[in-house]
Each structure stands twice: as structure tokens, then as C-alpha cells.
Design brief:
The structure is a single chain. The chain is built from three helices and nine strands. It has a five-stranded mixed beta sheet with strand order 1-2-3-5-8. The longest helix has 15 residues. The radius of gyration is 16 Å and the shape is globular.
Length: about 160
């Protein structure tokens, strides 16, 4: 159910950013979703970005700190994100949710509130000797429509996705 909640979250963010979020049904290459931004015209190329999704009840990020730690359950998930790529780039999106499933969403005046949020990070070029690597996820990297647009624009310009 955590996976389903996160897929809905990232799909909503993508729609707000003018992109589609295509969920990859079979996790073959460590990619759970691809974001596609349509081209400005039919003769231009669309933009794509890959993401691996992870959802956890084990972390409650504190926005007063610079980051929180996430531990991969399998080394190959980390390695796939850390490997150099030309295009499209891969990011990790970590969603933190309350332990109690009924607390994941709440009806509020004007809409549905999803408790907690997603954070993103770009791991390309990082290394770890651990069997189950631990990474720092910046708390300033909230995954929302503005962040997705900025990430895709940086990728299009050939800039680093970090910072």
C-alpha cells in the first residue's frame, strides 16, 4: 500500500508540473517511474527523467536539520542510482509516512491531505562500501512540481542535478 500511495503522490506532482508519470510495472533496472515532459512543438524532443521510489515509516524528517538518513535494503538499488548516466538521469524519491496506515491521508477543508512528503536526491557518482548503503537525503529537496520542473530543466541544460 505504501507503494500505491507514493505512486499517487508523484503522479499528482507530475500533473501539476505539466508532465506525465509513467509507472514501470517491472523493476528491472531500478526504475519505478519515468517522468515525461512534452516538447514545446511536434518537431522538438520531449524530456524524460527516471526515478526510483522508496517509501518508509522508519524516518520522520526534521526540517530543522540538513538531511535524514535512508538505508537501502539492497546494494544494487544504490549502485543503479550512483552509476554515471548521460540521459535520462535517475533520481531517488523517498517518501516518509506515519506508521499507522489510516493516518496517511486526511480530509481537510478544500481537499485531501497526504501526510508527510517526498524528498528527492541525485546519487550519481557516490560510493559506499556497505552491503546496505546509507545515504543522506537533504530535507530542502522536497519533491513538488517546482522541484520536478527545475530538475528537468537542469538535465536539459546538461547541468548537475545536485544543489
Amino acid at each position: 500500500m505504501m507503494e500505491q500511495l507514493q505512486e499517487g503522490y508523484v503522479s499528482s506532482v507530475a500533473a501539476s508540473a505539466g508532465c506525465s508519470a509513467e509507472v514501470i510495472g517491472k523493476d528491472t533496472f531500478g526504475v519505478d517511474v519515468q517522468f515525461i515532459r512534452p516538447a514545446a512543438s511536434h518537431v522538438q524532443q520531449e524530456a524524460m527523467l527516471f526515478a526510483q521510489l522508496k517509501c518508509t515509516t522508519q524516518v520522520t524528517p526534521d526540517r530543522d536539520t540538513k538531511s535524514f538518513q535512508y538505508r537501502f535494503s539492497k546494494r544494487e538499488y544504490f549502485e543503479g542510482l550512483a552509476a554515471p548516466r548521460t540521459y535520462p538521469k535517475k533520481i531517488l524519491i523517498v517518501m516518509t509516512v506515519p506508521y499507522e496506515q489510516l493516518s496517511w491521508t486526511e480530509i481537510v477543508d478544500g481537499g485531501l491531505l497526504v501526510k508527510r512528503e517526498c524528498y528527492w536526491t541525485h546519487l550519481e557518482g557516490q560510493t559506499s562500501a556497505l552491503v546496505k548503503p546509507v545515504i543522506d537525503v537533504p530535507t530542502e529537496n522536497l519533491f513538488d512540481a517546482a522541484a520536478l520542473i527545475k530538475i528537468m530543466e537542469r538535465q536539459d541544460r546538461g547541468e548537475t542535478l545536485d544543489g
